[in-house]
Amino acid sequence: MQLTKLLLSLLFLLSVTVTISNAHNITRILAAHPDFSTFNHYLTLTHLATEINRRTTITVCAINNAGMSDLLAKHPTIYTIKNILSLHILLDYFGAKKLHQITNGTALAATMFQATGSAPGSSGFVNITDLKGGKVGFGAEDNGGNLDALFVKSIEEKPYNISVIQISKILSSDVAEAPAPGPSELNLTGIMSAHGCKQFADALLANTEASKTYQDNAEGGLTVFCPLDDAFKAFFPKYKNLSAADKTSFLEFLAVPVYQSLSMLKSNNGLMNTLATDGEKKFDFTVQNEGQEVTLKTKINTVKITGTLLDEQPLAIYTTDKVLMPKELFKAAPTPAPAPAPEEAADAPKAHKHKKAAPSPESDVSDAPADSPDDDASDQTADDNAGVKVTSARFHAMVFSLCLGFLLL
Ligand SMILES: *[C@@H]1O[C@H](CO)[C@@H](O)[C@H](O)[C@H]1NC(C)=O
Ligand SMILES: *[C@@H]1O[C@H](CO)[C@@H](O)[C@H](O)[C@H]1NC(C)=O
Ligand SMILES: *[C@@H]1O[C@H](CO)[C@@H](O)[C@H](O)[C@H]1NC(C)=O
Ligand SMILES: *[C@@H]1O[C@H](CO)[C@@H](O)[C@H](O)[C@H]1NC(C)=O
Ligand SMILES: *[C@@H]1O[C@H](CO)[C@@H](O)[C@H](O)[C@H]1NC(C)=O
Ligand SMILES: *[C@@H]1O[C@H](CO)[C@@H](O)[C@H](O)[C@H]1NC(C)=O
Fold it and tell me: Is 232 helix (H, G, I), strand (E, B) or coil?
């Protein structure tokens, strides 16, 4: 329980902004130094590379291939590797010169591990101390004052954006090395509750069926678009008004059964099936870039992605500024169209609960009463594409986990 909580926070990379700075590229910097290829590889696998590229005033304490072998010999999970490596990313700029001229000879540097808000006490800090003979020692603060990792050399300095230095060995930390649970053990509603989506999380917790659908998909790939609290509060009367079955469909509509990083969303614009997609009930939406922003659209409304709560293959959770409304349950505000019978369409018992990226079927029967007839053709083409896209994303996700499996053997 405690561990789960800890991990949640570990994996929660501080509300990541949507803008990506291209000032530096750690992958490219380290690619010029083959002795750091393993470290580089794991920065990419754990998505820490993206985090590093996004930030400025940062120091990466790189470990050479021999040092990484020592770490990998213990067969840590990829989640544990991520925690350990995030302790090697200091949220301040330390070039070789500054390291040798630390005020008072000693300093505590906050790390990316600490910035997740997960490391208890001071365990996410790294102690940097100028030692005798011009040596600079590094040690995790929860390591009993042991400063046995030493500064070796500067690899690349771009003041004051990024400094990449080599240290002699992995910083050991009991907290970072603690086995980190996998995705199915993550408490998704806990993550949402703690970071501005408590209203939505509570609605999800109160709905056993939708909760189970989310949990069932957590292992294979899941991306959640949770409305921020103010938005969900304003929407709540409408939500409360829904029948029990429609509440479930609505909650399932706000997640898709595949992992989608923000850059995947940006490059894969188009129709997406959701956890609520079931047979003729499409419950889909369209992903579309608007400048730097990613928007989600239905015929009823458009919402913006405003932040990232979790981006950890195979799971992602994004916040949205408003509540995305499925056309199957809501009507566009001022259209005086003939009222369809919403209960009839949406309340029909579900034949099966295949939540695995089920592509919509050929028939468009459920749309017929609500939509203008000319919609069908365009919807159909879009659906076919979405089906293919979703399947291939899932396939990649599987390949990815297989690769991980091998790497960790
Ligand atoms: C960083 O560099 C690597 C290797 O050159 C490249 O594959 C990757 O796309 C780059 N990332 C960004 C964000 O430019
Ligand atoms: C350096 O040490 C002095 C005296 O102990 C203290 O007042 C000061 O805050 C220290 N400076 C830093 C940056 O830690
Ligand atoms: C860093 O560790 C050394 C050795 O344990 C200790 O003397 C020093 O006070 C620590 N520095 C800080 C800033 O806590
Ligand atoms: C630091 O980053 C900024 C953009 O964020 C860029 O304009 C500048 O050239 C970078 N400095 C160095 C030394 O790379
Ligand atoms: C997950 O978090 C929610 C709310 O934060 C909490 O009520 C629930 O007990 C947690 N579940 C588990 C299994 O830890
Ligand atoms: C709730 O449903 C009723 C009947 O369908 C409708 O008249 C009313 O406007 C709805 N209220 C809200 C807040 O959507």
Answer: helix
CA atoms within 13 A on the CB side of 222: 26
The token pair at 193 is 């509750």
Task: Write the pLDDT tens digit of every residue in 192-243.
Answer: 998 899 999 999 999 999 999 999 888 888 999 999 999 999 999 999 999 9
State the first-to-last Cα distance of the chain, in angstroms, to the nearest integer: 28
Confidence (pTM) = 0.55
Give, for ligand 3, the residue of 92, 127, 146 to mutate: max count of ligand atoms closer than 8 Å to Cβ: 127
CA distances from 261 to 266, 286, 318 (A): 9, 16, 10
Name the residue of 92, 104, 125, 129 to mutate for ligand 2: max ligand atoms within 8 A of Cβ.
Answer: 104
Q: Is the CB of 44 under 6 A from ligand 1?
A: no
Is 241 close to ligand 6, i.e. is its CB under 6 Å away?
yes
Q: Please, which residues have CB within 8 angstroms of residue 99's CB and are 6 or more apart in sequence?
A: 128, 130, 136, 151, 165
CB of 377 closer than 8 Å to CB of 405: no
